[in-house]
Specification:
single chain, 458 residues, alpha/beta, Rossmann fold, six-stranded mixed β-sheet, 15 helices, globular
Length: 458
């Protein structure tokens, strides 16, 4: 009988093969493009005021930078952006100057928490609906429309548009980056879009020397990101262009870890377990399944580099590193043998693509002359954070007892119903997050914690 890990890998390969054999339906993208063009004032759901982008965008450097993810995981990318000091802010040359590179900028963060995790849409045969969600996230950042709360009678229109977009979600980058870039071009919006997968692949390339023998790279991500093969393709491309030996890339798709990190009750294995215990169990199982599958393939080269291919995973980076270290010296039988020791390097290197995203964002802002300089800082206001929540129009049967969308409803929807607003975007009040998620932000993301509104919990 095949092992659980082998069955998971077969399913993943079948899904990836299916996705490769079908080109994306351009109708999803074209429908969103037409929907926006038909309502250019931006008052309707999933539209934006196109006049906000009339003229030369370089004359509006005070506009914020938009960052979006399927939940709070993208805050790890925002943390890296806020912490970056890799350039001299006076002459833009590489090198730290003891001043954060984005000290003068402001940000709008959006976490599509009501619809997360994005990584499971592909596994449920809902790739086109996922692509629509990614385009909706983009439209929100480009527009001014939001709600004060889930029960507000009317939307408000005072959110500023953005001058650049960071897709701080690996799954969204894998499935939606091309859609977003082509839609922005079709709308005639002079902004650029940065995604995390390309940056992660560049990070792998930087760790490989031209003289190195082929290495083994492990990618831990959601099932959807793994099924897209975005990382293997991007890593092959980055190392190939650099003239280096193309590494072996193995993947482990997790269906539950991102949801557990978010504190979603539907991803708790046991109601009696704490979130910390549940997360640790998911990490242990995912790491074990990945390495066991690798062992059964007959490979002998050790895993040397681990890519954190989901923006939620840096929040538990220490736990992931510990799981690999413990597995390396573990003996699953009483015979004392260590079957995984030779398959995991003694010192593995973990790659968080977030810092590389931050550097790419800085370079593109500088090239486009969109940076806020010191004498313009007074123009900018505070950062703003948003989350999506279920709309009051959603029927009770589509909601869990705690008010979230049910799994059946979430993954049962079809694209094209752009008049249906089953979620609303509201300010990210920390009381909307589980206490454990708040602690993760406070303890692991200090720069974000400084900027986020804590008035509702303190």
């Amino acid at each position: 009988m095949p092992s659980k890990s082998m069955v998971q890998m077969v399913v993943l390969i079948m899904l990836a093969t299916s996705l490769r054999s079908e080109s994306p339906d351009v109708g999803v993208r074209n429908q969103m493009i037409t929907h926006v063009n038909d309502q250019p004032r931006g008052a309707a759901p999933f539209t934006f005021d196109k006049s906000s982008y009339d003229g030369n965008l370089s004359e509006l450097p005070e506009l914020p930078i938009g960052v979006f993810d399927s939940g709070i995981g993208g805050l790890t990318v925002l943390e890296a952006i806020l912490s970056l000091d890799a350039y001299n802010n006076d002459n833009l040359s590489p090198g730290a100057d003891e001043l954060p590179d984005f000290a003068n900028e402001r940000f709008i963060y959006f976490g599509d928490q009501a619809n997360m995790p994005y990584g499971n849409y592909a596994a449920n045969g809902k790739v086109d609906y996922l692509r629509e969600l990614i385009l909706k996230d983009t439209v929100f950042l480009l527009g001014k429309r939001s709600f004060d709360s889930s029960t507000a009678s009317q939307p408000r229109f005072d959110k500023p548009p953005v001058k650049a977009i960071v897709i701080a979600c690996n799954t969204a980058t894998a499935y939606g980056l091309d859609d977003v870039r082509q839609a922005v071009q079709a709308w005639g919006i002079p902004i650029f879009v940065v995604g995390v997968v390309e940056s992660g692949a560049r990070g792998v390339n930087e760790l490989i020397l031209p003289t190195d023998q082929p290495k083994t790279i492990a990618v831990m991500a959601t099932v959807g990101t793994c099924a897209s093969l975005a990382y293997p393709k991007a890593i092959d491309r980055a190392t190939g262009i650099a003239g280096k030996r193309i590494p072996r890339v193995i993947q482990q798709g997790s269906t539950s870890l991102a949801g557990a990190i978010e504190g979603d009750p539907s991803f708790m294995k046991n109601d009696a377990e704490s979130q910390v215990t549940t997360i640790a169990n998911y990490i242990r199982d995912d790491v074990k399944n990945m390495v066991e599958t690798y062992r059964q393939s007959g490979a002998t080269e050790p895993i040397e580099i681990i890519v954190l291919g989901c923006t939620h995973f840096p929040l538990v980076e220490e736990e992931i590193a510990s799981a690999f270290a413990q597995l390396r010296v573990s003996s699953p039988e009483d015979d004392g043998k260590l079957p995984y020791q030779h398959l995991i390097a003694e010192q593995v290197k973990l790659i968080n693509p977030a810092e590389l995203v931050a550097k790419e964002l800085y370079r593109q802002l500088a090239t486009a002359r969109l940076r806020i300089t010191g004498d313009q800082r007074s123009i900018a206001t505070e950062d703003t954070f948003y989350l999506s929540v279920p709309s009051p129009d959603v029927p009770p049967s589509a909601k869990t007892p705690n008010g979230d969308l049910t799994t059946l409803y979430k993954y049962g929807r079809e694209p094209g119903r752009l008049h249906v607003e089953d979620t609303r975007v509201v300010p990210m009040r920390l009381k909307l997050l589980p206490e454990s998620s708040r602690k993760l932000i406070q303890n692991r993301l200090p720069e974000v914690w400084k900027r986020i509104d804590r008035s509702n919990v303190e």
